Amino acid sequence: MEDGYDILVEDRGGYVLLVLSGAFASTGFAKLRDTMTSVVEKKTKEARCLVLDLAKTTLLTSSCLEAMYSARKQGETNNWSVVITSANEDMVELFELTGFDRFFPMYRDVDAFVAEKGL
Fold it and tell me: What are φ and ψ of residue 22, in 5° steps?
């Protein structure tokens, strides 16, 4: 884990999974934004969804939330969606307090997302 944060990217066919670990502050925000932009711009043939796994995330700044929203808007023009999985209690509270829970479907975990979408 570099600088207190890490992003693991996995193309899983019908979706791309980003596992976020650690605290995403100033440098973490830039890497998160760039990674999400890159994934959505790739427009892979099979993947139609960006899944953000927050199980190991300890901090997201408002800039990170804005970057997620931007990826969501960018994805809409490319028929992509962005969803949140495995958010711990603090992350759920952050999304609820900021109102960002209205913009992102949230799933208990990746398996719950996969089961609902039939992937």
Answer: 95, -160
**Total number of domains constituting the chain:** 1
- Contact by Cβ (8 Å): 57, 21: yes
Note down pLDDT in tens along the chain; length 119 residues. Answer: 445 889 999 988 889 999 999 998 877 888 888 888 888 777 656 678 899 999 999 999 889 999 999 989 888 887 888 999 999 999 999 999 999 999 999 999 999 999 998 88
CA angle 44, 47, 50 (to 5 degrees): 110
> Which structural domain, as residue segments, surrounds residue 86?
5-117
Tell whether the torsion through CA atoms of 75, 81, 86 and 89 is positive or negative: positive
CATH number for the domain harbouring residue 50: 3.30.750.24
